[in-house]
Amino acid sequence: MESKENIKIGLLAVIALTLIFNTFMQDGTATSNEQEGNVSISKNNDQITLNPQTPDVTQTPVKPAEPEVPAGPATTIKFAEESHDFGNIKQDTENKHIFTFTNTGTEPLIISNAKGSCGCTVPKYPREPIPPGGRGEIEVEYKPGKKKGNQNQTVTITANTEPKNTQIQIKAQVEEVNPPS
């Protein structure tokens, strides 16, 4: 019975080591000391040591990812409309809508990201700064795929605004193309 426990512990250690190794090898280094059975992985002076002989794992906490910080001094944004309803649409169709906005602040508007709430909602946003008083567009393409019924999706825009995130919405009633008979 004890050997089964050792096998379980060993497998868990291998899985943990694989996950840790894959995570840290993007920018970090890994070393192994087979005599002691220790494996150390370090990244940016943080270190994790795993000893597969025992179930204990010693870990120095890894710094959490820094939140995305928009560039430039804060400004304001105003959308002509914050929501668009496509109405009744069919599955597997491409639906596009352009949201227009104005930089209502006194500094250039810099959009650093725009992300849909799912892979079916894809925004395209301007990469160049929008001057104060200037206008811009965000094109949102919605492909419902096999989804059906009432759909509500959001696009989160990250910019040098206060607050840094602004959301716009799309809605649709998706009709099934070939309903079951």
Structure description:
- 13% of the residues lie in helices and 44% in strands.
- By secondary structure, the chain is mostly beta strands.
- The protein folds into 2 domains: 2-59, no CATH class; 77-175, Immunoglobulins (Immunoglobulin-like, Sandwich).
- A 4-stranded antiparallel β-sheet has the order 1-2-3-4, with helices on one face.
- A hairpin with a 2-residue loop joins strand 2 (38-43) and strand 3.
- It is flat and about 75 Å long.
Key phrases:
1 helix, 181 residues, four-stranded antiparallel β-sheet, mainly beta, 12 strands
What's the arrangement of secondary structure elements?
Layout: H1 2-24, E1 29-33, E2 38-43, E3 46-50, E4 57-59, E5 77-79, E6 83-90, E7 95-103, E8 111-116, E9 121-124, E10 135-142, E11 149-159, E12 165-175
Parallel strand pairs: 6-12
Antiparallel strand pairs: 1-2, 2-3, 3-4, 5-7, 7-10, 8-11, 9-10, 11-12
Strands side by side in the biggest sheet: 1-2-3-4
Amount of helix: 10-25%
CATH topology of the largest domain: Immunoglobulin-like
Q: Which CATH class of the largest domain is shown?
A: Mainly Beta
